[in-house]
Here is the input.
Amino acid sequence: MMKKLTTAAGRPYTEFENSMTAGNRGPILLQDYFLHEDLAHFNRERIPERVVHAKGTGAFGIFTVTHDITQFTKAKIFSEVGKQTKMFARFSQVGGEKGSADTERDPRGFALKFYTEDGNWDLVGNNTPVFFIKDPKKFSHFIHTQKRDPKTNCKSPTMMWDFWSLNPESLHQVMILMSDRGTPFSHRNMHGFGSHTFSFFNKSNEKVWVKFHFRTLQGIKNFTNEEAAEMRGTDPDHSQRDLVEAIEKKDFPKWVMQIQVMTQEQAKEFKFNPFDLTKVWPHKDFPLHDVGTMEMNEIPENYFRDVEQSAFAPANVVDGIGYSPDKMLQGRLLSYPDAHRYRLGVNYEDIPVNKCPYMVSNYQRDGLMQMGDNGGASPNYRPNSFDDIVVDESYKEPPMPLEVDTADWFDRNKYDNDHYTQPGDLYTKAMNDMDRKNLVHNIVNSMSGITGEKKDEIINRQLCHFFRANIQLGIAVAKELEITIDEKVMAHAQ
Here is the structure.
């Protein structure tokens, strides 16, 4: 007898892969209980280590505005050219444990905290502009494939490629990961991205959609697969050491912040869903605008205090910056603060590295790790007749218009199932001959680890995705895997 898919309470459940949204591209509804249950359970699977981004390094620094973008946003951090804001950055590996090697093939976290006078702004991204999935219901399951097999407790290429081959939306990020960009030389030598689509609104409450880019001024530098493997044995903490030593020598690493801007009208006419995290906005259509520079110039005196206890949440935006209907972003608004409350306690934002250096006024009291005065004798309820906390209506956000009045579990790929054009462009237009050669080599090196009775099925399914992205890529991978390309595989690839 087959087992029914259920919630933890035993309720049979049907909508496993698609979140309930207000319209096909609309925001996620709070009532989608299983999404919350699954993400909340996932956040509690490890203690005390971070579930993802367990190993990383951090530094304090300064962000300086170099270009005026006040026509797009009223965020005070960008209010005038020359304005400087203190910040903290944490760079990390995504899938490995705290003791893993820095040169493992993995995306890199690129998390930034800006201490602004309107509160802390956290921009929590990666060193890639896209991700493997587009709906948060798939997140915990994807990460499980990057962790350890529940039976052998070993990393499993079979798990990884099985998931990827069953989710063609992952192809774009898979090709980036399997290129040499999957093994950066150091955290200093990689670009960073906010990855998600966010929104800006100006003093007139005019809204635009925006993506954040951070271009390293140290230049891009990557390891080959063999160089990364050698460094794993020579110095598994290479990226940590590299950042510390550079800053101690006053060779302060710098990045240029740039943005892409899309109007709401352009979003409606864009050929892809502009809120799909597996897609990029072409630079020729949406050029990069310079905004400012960030410089990392101070290593924390105590790693645990500041780096290990640092907590970033995409929910932390400031006046002039807002969210978008990006489903992955919407899922992270819940998941990240929930993870921090579990790992560090409900008062994690009172920890010095996370604490807003300006005034904080609210009615939250008590709880684990209360580190301040706990509100003193002031009321812990509102409204009341005693305190002088007021609501400043000038910070009221403009409403988010919805294009539909129907909430349902929409298929994430309906009307947005082109998973191959952008990966194909990446292969043919963004990579040179050496990049393409190394990409194929790295793919084959990883796929050669697929084992078990489903081996041929998984390999052939993934080959179909490579063929659909680019025929020559598929042929090259199949040849190196010593697989004869039969008519059946080619038929599936059409």
